Amino acid sequence: MEPKTIPATVYAELSPNPATMKFVVNKLLLEGAATVEYADSEETSNSPLAARLFNFPFVTGIFISQNFITITKNEIIEWDDVVLELREYIQEFLNGDNSVFTTPISENSSDDDLTKTEGSYKPQEPSTELEKKIVEILEEYITPAVARDGGAIHFHAFVDGQLSVVLKGACSGCPSSTMTLKNGIESLMTRMMPEVKEVVAHEG
User: Fold this and answer.
1) Which of 11, 56, 71, 164 is 20 to 30 A from residue 64's alpha carbon, by CA?
2) pLDDT of the chain along its 204 residues, tens only?
3) Nearest-angstrom CA–CA distance, 101 and 118
4) How far apart are CA 142 and CA 3, in angstroms?
């Protein structure tokens, strides 16, 4: 007897970024800390779902993490007018015989694999004990909160007291991201790790 497949369910959550909406799924879309972000339809060759979502004329960005999809829209339409349609569309796609990605993506993928995978991002590996401690604090205290808002944060570098992080999803381009970075993340990191004097967002 084959195990019963649990249907995918999707619900929408507001994020601090008014241009984005987070769609939470009851299934795992990506493993570990790997994330994928698309800025336009030309980048979506490895993701049928992202490609189809860009068919909506108001969609300007798509971010996929463990169990959620964050969609960025333009200003010509309000979320109230499209959120139900998007939620149902994603749910129907996942319950059909469709793949979110055509190639496997995980945090254990090799650099070569990720280079070939458009939109994917593999977090930088810490190389010193101090950097490992910074990453541990990020993952334990900051990553869950950022994910709840529909985004992701990754360690990029630590040089001369300056911690550089990469912001993805709802955090990228959010009007309040600078305040969150300084008042939230920087405040916590400098308190828990005196070696950290400043936290900045890495561009690019």
Assistant:
1) 164
2) 445 678 889 999 988 888 999 999 998 888 766 788 898 988 888 999 999 999 999 999 999 988 899 999 999 999 999 999 999 999 999 998 788 898 877 554 433 333 334 455 556 677 889 999 999 988 888 888 888 888 888 888 899 999 988 888 877 766 666 666 777 788 888 888 899 888 888 765
3) 11
4) 37
Distance, in Å, from the CA atom of 35 to the CA atom of 66, rounded to the nearest integer, reads 8
Name all domains of the chain by residue range, CATH numbers in brackets.
10-120 (3.30.1370.70), 123-201 (3.30.300.130)
Size (the chain), residues: 204
pTM of the model: 0.74
Q: Kindly list the distances between the CA atom of residue 59 and the CA atoms of 21, 62, 72, 102, in Å, as whole numbers in the listed order.
A: 11, 8, 6, 21
